Amino acid sequence: MAPFDIAVISVFLIFTPVILVPLAARFRTPYIYLSFTAAAFSSLLAASAGVLAVRRGVNTSAIVAMGLPDLPFHLRLDPLAGFFLCVIGLLAFFVSIYSVGYVKGFAANRSITRFTIFYSLFITGMFLVVLADDAFFFLVAWELMAVSSYFLVMYEDEKAENRRASYLYLVIAHVGAIAILLSFGVMAGQAHGYEGFQGYTFAAMRATTYPPGWATAAFFLSFFGFAAKAGVIPLHVWLPEAHPVAPSNVSALMSGVMLKASIYGIIRITFDFLKVLPWWWGGIVLALGLLSAVLGVLYALMQHDLKRLLAYHSVENIGIILIGVGLAMLFTSFNFPVLAALALIAALYHTLNHAMFKGLLFMGAGAVLHATHERNMEEMGGLIHKMPWTAVFFLVGCVSIAALPPFNGFVSEWLTFQAFLMSPALHRPILSLLIPLGAALLALTGALAAACFVKAFGVTFLGHWRGHNPVHRISEVGWSMRLGMGLAAVACFVLGIFPTIIITWMDIIPQRLVGGRIAATAGRFGWMWLTPYAHERASYSGFNVFIGILAVVFLAYLLLHIGKTAVRRVPAWDCGFAQTTSRMQYNATSFAMPIRRIFGFLFHIREEDEAVPPVRHPAYPERLRYRLRVRDRFWNWLYEPLGEAAFFIARRVGNLQQGRIQVYLIYSFVTIIVLLAFLG
Amino acid sequence: MIDISSFITEVIQVLLLLLAAPLFTGWVKTVKCRMQGRTYAGIFQPYRELRKLFAKEVVLAENASWIFCFTPYLVFGVTVLIGGIIPLISVDLPLADTADVIALAMLFAMVRFFTALAGMDTGTAFGGMGSSREMTIASLAEPALLMAVFTASLAANSTSLAHMVQVMAHGPFMLRPSLAFALLAFIMVFLAETGRVPVDNPATHLELTMIHEAMILEYSGRHLALIEWAGMMKLFIFMSLGIAIFCPWGIAAADDPGGMLIGGLSLAGKLAGAGALLVLIETGLAKMRLFRLTEYLGSAFLLATLGMLSFFILE
Question: What is this model's ipTM?
Answer without folding.
Answer: 0.95
